[in-house]
Amino acid sequence: MMIPIRCFTCGNLIGDKFVIFQSRTKGGEDPGRVLDDLGLKRYCCRRMLISSVDVIDQVLPFFSRKAEQQ
Length: 70
What we know:
globular
């Protein structure tokens, strides 16, 4: 998964916090509380972690079809 290293809006470093965020939320913790514990107070940085989705599995079938056509 490709995680943004910095927040697109403010430039704050967020890439190092994603693994911790993901493991703690999968463990059942509240995402808002985890983000507070990680020190992410700005809503722009919070949305970067909350809204990141692994789309490579969805895009890859289209790429292989394109490669076969050429």
